[in-house]
User: Which sequence fits this backbone?
């Protein structure tokens, strides 16, 4: 009797295995981003089953990064590649020009205006005007401006939705939720920073500029024009003179770069130091990560108080 019971069950299990083998495997979605802040934007709109790889390792800088062989393989296997553009990730410029990446590479610098024209948002007239005012300059650090980041997230969502392996409806829902959270955080940060709008701020390089402009902060000067190179004696003298004339000032430094040279020129001056990270190194890659990144920048300014 036991044998008779086992045989049908064995046949049933064999049938299930055969059916499972015949079904197509769930397609994976592999996304590569150049820097962590873009990873945060992808994670904000993507579904949980999307795999995201960020190229610039913790402690590195996109201005002088060297790609590892394993990262080249990640690029080859990616369904979509997001980067800011050659002004930031110069190490990717020649590689992404190859035909093998054609159609999968998406440059986000300079794309926000065209995306607005293709997919206008009913409640975002003011945001589009803001983008037009601030995206006409040459500063490529667009991800620190929350409204430009929102436009990038919309562009990312549009790209992800076109992939066969993604859930377009879920992506749009995630995008709407992200927009609501981001706008609420922006209002909160603006209120937090009101007492510091007259604080004299200096930054290590221009990455902080768009954040300062967006929130109406006074950025008095930038220590180095190109963080990949040591500044010349003339520029150092000009910065030192600016710092002296500012009286009490706050210098916003970055963990990716050597601090020795500017420590020497600030010796004896009345300067408060605060550190912010434009690459969001310590921010968890969660759907709420970008809002936490914005708050981390605000917290660095609040430390100048």
Assistant:
């Amino acid at each position: 009797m036991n044998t008779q019971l086992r045989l049908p069950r064995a046949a049933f299990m064999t049938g299930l295995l055969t059916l499972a083998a015949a079904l197509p495997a769930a397609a994976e979605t592999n996304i590569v981003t150049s820097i962590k802040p873009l990873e945060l934007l992808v994670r904000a709109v993507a579904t949980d089953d999307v795999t995201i790889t960020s190229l610039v390792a913790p402690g590195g800088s996109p201005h002088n990064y060297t790609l590892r062989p394993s990262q080249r393989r990640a690029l080859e296997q990616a369904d979509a590649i997001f980067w800011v553009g050659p002004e930031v990730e110069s190490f990717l410029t020649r590689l992404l020009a190859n035909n093998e990446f054609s159609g999968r590479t998406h440059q986000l610098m300079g794309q926000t205006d065209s995306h607005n024209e293709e997919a206008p948002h009913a409640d975002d007239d003011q945001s589009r005007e803001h983008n037009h005012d601030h995206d006409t300059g040459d500063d490529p650090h667009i991800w620190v401006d929350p409204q430009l980041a929102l436009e990038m997230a919309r562009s990312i969502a549009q790209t992800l939705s076109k992939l066969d392996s993604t859930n377009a409806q879920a992506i749009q829902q995630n995008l709407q939720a992200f927009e609501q959270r981001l706008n609420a955080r922006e209002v909160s940060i603006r209120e937090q920073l009101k007492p510091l709008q007259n604080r004299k701020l200096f930054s290590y390089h221009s990455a902080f500029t768009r954040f300062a402009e967006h929130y109406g902060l006074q950025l008095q000067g930038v220590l180095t024009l190109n963080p990949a190179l040591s500044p010349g004696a003339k520029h150092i003298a000009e910065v030192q003179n600016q710092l002296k004339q500012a009286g009490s000032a706050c210098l916003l430094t970055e963990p990716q770069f050597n601090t020795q040279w500017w420590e020497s020129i600030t010796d004896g001056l009345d300067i408060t130091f605060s550190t912010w990270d434009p690459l969001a190194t310590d921010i968890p890659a969660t759907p709420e990560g970008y809002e936490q990144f914005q708050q981390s920048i605000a917290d660095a300014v609040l430390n100048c108080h």
Notes: Residues 1-7, 19-25, 113-136 have pLDDT under 50 and may be disordered. The two ends are 83 Å apart (CA to CA).
